[in-house]
Design goal:
Elements lengths: L1 E3 L5 H12 L6 E5 L11 E4 L8 H4 L5 E5 L7 H15 L3 E7 L10 H14 L2 E7 L4 H4 L2 H7 L1 E4 L11 H13 L7 E4 L7 H12 L4 E4 L2 H10 L4 H14 L10 H6 L6 H9 L1
Parallel strand pairs: 1-2, 1-4, 2-3, 4-5, 5-6, 6-8, 7-9
């Protein structure tokens, strides 16, 4: 039996769909804080609230392999993840596949410490585990291309740093491949795109496909964070995104291992494809 935490989130829904595509719907459990939001997933659903650790082990009964998608509540993820790991041990889960952060062990991104703590907890748990260090989502950039078209510029703080972001569908498919196949026990994979690009490259590709002249405007981190706040992001989220962008300038969002395409057995999504998809 396979189970997926955060099943109603964007990555979780894609993972459930990938499991169903493999004919595993009857062997899949969607774990969700609000089961009603998972009613449309087409698989069994169990209530799974990270903040109710006493209830987690029962929800994992009969689960052999667990895809632990990192929680969305920054600042609470370390205790939440540790509660899931402890519950998995109590329930007899045979393997945890955890979605971490690219270069988590050396990263200086503000998001890294919670991932580092979770990886350490897994190593000390006595459970079999696999670490998937997911790159920054390509959609984090392409999701704002509409605003870039309206304003004539992409803004950020990454300078000319190369990034190897990855699409959510590629990362979800890779997670399910690892979850459902053997030979991954104890491994750590840096999952990133084959094709590195800069934000100036992204602006150039958007210009090419849209027929409009779009530039890349590099800003100090604090100024970029203020812009993110002005479009509705909470200050803490704006700070995290601006921090990640700034760290990308020195390679924090870059990896050339090509582990993602090897797991997928095909090339990862290209920048051209990502922009075309966003414009559709």
């Amino acid at each position: 039996m396979y189970a997926v935490t955060g099943a109603t989130g964007q990555l979780g829904r894609l993972a459930i769909a990938a499991l169903k595509h493999r004919g595993l719907a009857d062997q899949t459990v969607a774990l969700a804080r609000d089961p009603q939001k998972a009613a449309d997933l087409g698989v069994a659903v169990r209530a799974f609230d990270y903040d109710k650790p006493e209830s987690l082990a029962a929800a994992l009964e009969g689960v052999d392999k667990l895809l632990l998608i990192s929680g969305s509540e920054v600042g609470k993820r370390e205790p939440q993840h540790k509660a899931v790991i402890a519950a998995a041990g109590q329930a007899g889960v045979k393997q945890i596949v955890y979605t971490s952060l690219l270069n988590a062990d050396t990263s200086e991104i503000m998001l890294a410490p919670e991932h580092q703590a979770t990886e350490k907890a897994l190593a000390e748990s006595g459970l079999d585990y696999v670490i998937l260090r997911n790159s920054w989502y390509t959609e984090n950039y392409t999701g704002s291309l509409g605003a870039a078209l309206a304003n004539g510029a992409i803004v950020g703080s990454a300078r000319d740093g190369k990034v190897t972001t990855a699409s959510r569908p590629d990362l979800a498919e890779a997670a399910v491949i690892v979850l459902t196949t053997d030979g991954h026990s104890g491994k750590t994979y840096e999952l990133a795109n084959d094709e590195p690009y800069t934000l100036a490259d992204l602006a150039a590709e958007l210009s090419r496909q849209s027929g409009k002249s779009i530039s890349y405007s590099d800003l100090p981190k604090a100024e970029y964070a203020k812009i993110l706040e002005s479009i509705g992001l909470p200050p803490a989220a704006a700070e995290l995104i601006a921090d990640s962008d700034e760290k990308a300038a020195s390679g924090a969002l870059y990896d050339d291992s090509r582990a993602l395409s090897r797991i997928l057995g095909r090339p990862t999504q290209s920048l051209k494809e990502a922009v075309a998809q966003a414009l559709r």
